[in-house]
User: Which sequence fits this backbone?
């Protein structure tokens, strides 16, 4: 389900190997030293109630009211620094496309008592990739940095899957590319 009146500048392209990359063209959350995670949480609230389909599995994933707080204030987010913090903050712009292009599903049983209801049927981990622009002189895009992420979905007692968090953000050193390298 797409959100109406959306000013996001996000597209999905394929790399030379045919793998999807979600290209996020704007850096909304700037600064490597201090991301305002409350602003990120506020940005994510617009997704609550939306749902998207994972193309590889045809599964529907919902955005529940717990995502904004978990995404912005999880234990994982709290330890992020520098470029990875900026990458996670800006990945919020591509949530729909990251879900739609997710692949490599792995199931993990829920073992924590605190999640006995919200993840009653366990957890699913998918992989996804996104790219952020690196700007040179004159605000021209010099290149894109590509990041690999793990997307965590909880399988709730209502038998629906919900995006819970994005974790394990890793910059792909071999996948830096120029804007001319992208194909639609």
Assistant:
């Amino acid at each position: 389900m797409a959100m109406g009146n959306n000013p996001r500048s996000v597209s999905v392209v394929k790399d030379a190997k045919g793998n999807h990359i979600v290209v996020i063209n704007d850096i909304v959350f700037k600064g490597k030293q201090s991301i305002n995670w409350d602003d990120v949480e506020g940005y994510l609230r617009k997704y609550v109630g939306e749902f998207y389909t994972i193309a590889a599995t045809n599964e529907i994933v919902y955005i529940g009211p717990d995502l904004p707080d978990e995404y912005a204030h999880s234990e994982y987010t709290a330890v992020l620094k520098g470029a990875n913090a900026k990458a996670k903050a800006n990945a919020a712009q591509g949530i729909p496309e990251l879900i739609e292009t997710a692949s490599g599903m792995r199931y993990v049983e829920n073992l924590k008592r605190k999640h006995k209801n919200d993840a009653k049927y366990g957890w699913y981990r998918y992989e996804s990739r996104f790219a952020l622009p690196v700007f040179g002189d004159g605000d021209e895009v010099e290149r894109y940095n590509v990041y690999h992420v793990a997307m965590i979905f909880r399988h709730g007692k209502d038998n629906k899957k919900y995006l819970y968090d994005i974790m394990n953000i890793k910059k792909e050193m071999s996948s830096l590319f120029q804007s001319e390298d992208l194909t639609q």
Q: What stands out?
A: DSSP finds five helices and eight strands in the chain. The mean pLDDT is 88. The radius of gyration is 16 Å. The first helix runs from residue 37 to 44.
